[in-house]
Amino acid sequence: MNFSINNSIEVLERTPNVLHSLLHNISNQWSSNNEGGESWSPFDVLGHLIHCDECDWITRIKIALSENEIRRFEPIDRYAQIELNKGKNINQLLDEFIKIRKACLTELKSFNLTEEQLTKTAIHPDLDTVNLSQLISTWVAHDLAHLSQISRVMAKQYKDKVGPWKIYMKVLNQ
């Protein structure tokens, strides 16, 4: 599939609604359990998506589009949501995500990005030079990866309950 800003927006617009459908008013057992150890719960993943929308995607798009001679991305704290979301519940995070994503997409659309702009580059702190279409593609893949992660974490809550069907459930064995 070739990169398309419109195709990207199709997915980015849907993510908050998918998460709302899956997680709104769900019990704390579903939203707060993880896969063990330092892994993330659906609550943590949702908080991470919010933090990325607040501090990462649009900020980095603006850096890539800037006329600065050196366009360098700042590192993002991929674990900031742990502290930022203490005392909140899943429904609060869902409402917050819907608002922040809508604002991000309004701003993204306002850029009216051209093919030439999509080739503009910046320096990523770990990956070196990246271009704008790669950044936006990553935003989409990031959403989809975390939707998959949330589903996997939730499925694994019943890992020991499905009995012999476990052999058919690849998600339970990842």
Notable traits:
174 residues, Four Helix Bundle (Hemerythrin (Met), subunit A), two-stranded antiparallel ribbon, 2 strands, 55% helix, 5% strand
Write the layout of secondary structure elements.
Blueprint: H1 5-23, H2 28-32, H3 42-55, H4 57-65, H5 81-84, H6 90-110, E1 121-124, E2 128-131, H7 132-155
Antiparallel strand pairs: 1-2
Helix pairs in contact: 1-6, 1-7, 3-4, 3-6, 3-7, 4-7
What do these coordinates show?
There is one protein chain. The chain is mainly α and 174 residues long. The protein has a single domain (5-173), classed as Four Helix Bundle (Hemerythrin (Met), subunit A) (Up-down Bundle). Helices cover 55% and strands 5% of the residues. It has seven helices and two strands. It has helices at residues 5-23, 28-32, 42-55, 57-65, 81-84, 90-110, 132-155; strands spanning 121-124, 128-131. Strands 1-2 form a two-stranded antiparallel ribbon. A hairpin with a 3-residue loop joins β1 (121-124) and β2. α1 (5-23) runs antiparallel to α6 (90-110), α3 (42-55) packs parallel to α6 and α4 packs antiparallel against α7 (132-155). The model has no long low-confidence stretch (mean pLDDT 95).
